[in-house]
Please model this.
Amino acid sequence: MASDRDRLANVILEHLDLDESHTEVADAVIAEGWRPPARVVADGGEVEAIAVEWMRHVGFTTEEIAEAEAHSCIDTCDRVGDAWDCTDEDGESRHPIADDLAAAANMANVAMETIEARGWRPPAREITTAAELDALPTGSIVADRESDPWKALAIHGTRRWRGPFLGNYETSRFVDEWGPVTVLYVPTEEVVR
Model:
């Protein structure tokens, strides 16, 4: 099943072959009805990182945060039926920093859900070296510093980059003259072209 990204890449590739300008390619893509897809790249690690950064922001030390992350009710709280009684004899929490960390994690989850619902996407990957660029598979599409699209080709076993009207460049010359570049598309096994 082809993704939105694959469909976008196919439209771009069709117009790259016609040596159209980047604005003509953009017009064709928009005419095809393409809009940036909403997607989330968040995982539990990002939520945890947001929670920890929030704790730092409100004044907790690295040591306090590490202690809160390592907290276990087994060590400090009393078991009452199916739940833990985490209050001391004065009714105060036995682990207030861990409670704050849990609240920060809940806040981070709400923030990530809101971001997802609004269609946020992470910034596109930027490449500055020939080695990074050569690591992309044939068929990849990047935009140069002037936003013109370029496609990765394999010509006689050598990586070349073809732009809309500037010919073919070998990777190091391409990066030197047109970098940094932004990754627009990396082909998947689903794409057959």
About this structure: Residues 44-117 form one domain. The two ends are 14 Å apart (CA to CA). Helices lie at 4-16, 22-31, 44-57, 62-70, 73-76, 96-117, 130-134, 171-178. The chain has eight helices and eight strands.
